[in-house]
Every structure is written in C-alpha cells, then in structure tokens.
Amino acid sequence: MGKNNERITAYIGEKNPAEREKLICFLEKEGVVLDTDESRGRQEIVEGILPIAVNIEARTYRMMGNVTCAAGVASSGRIVKAEDFYESYDV
Questions:
Q1: Predicted TM-score (pTM) of this structure
Q2: DSSP letters for 31-79
C-alpha cells in the first residue's frame, strides 16, 4: 500500500489500545504525522475505537470522525487490520 497503490488512504480498524499505540508508533517512525486538522490528540486516538485513517500521499493520520463514516468505509470492505497494513506498507 504505497506510492503505486491506487488508494491514497488506508483505514485501519484496530480497537485494542495497545495495538493502536503500536500502529501510531510505527507510523511516526515512518514519518507519518498527526493531521493538523485533527481535533483529537494522539492519546485520544490511541484510546478511541473508530478506525484510523492514514493518508499515504500526505503522510498524515487521523481518527475517523464518526460512526457513520466508519460504517461507510466498513461496508465498502476497505477497513484492514493493523497486521495487514504492516504487510502492505511499502512507502
């Protein structure tokens, strides 16, 4: 899921706070930063349950805004588990 992938945004549906922390640490190590438009802080995202949206092109992450958005992405089959994201991440 990198520069050659047609999808710019990855949606990671991880609800376990420890796994969310691991994911965010991975993203930050890769140079992906918290979106400046995100109103919630890093810790709130770690403790949240909504999927984390990663904009591969802009190299930013944020938590999805609400359950309706999350449901829309889920119904399209675009939410992946963290382990699948790690395997496909090649930026």
A1: 0.86
A2: T-EE-TT--S-HHHHHH--SPEEEETTTTEEEE-S-HHHHHHHHHTT-E
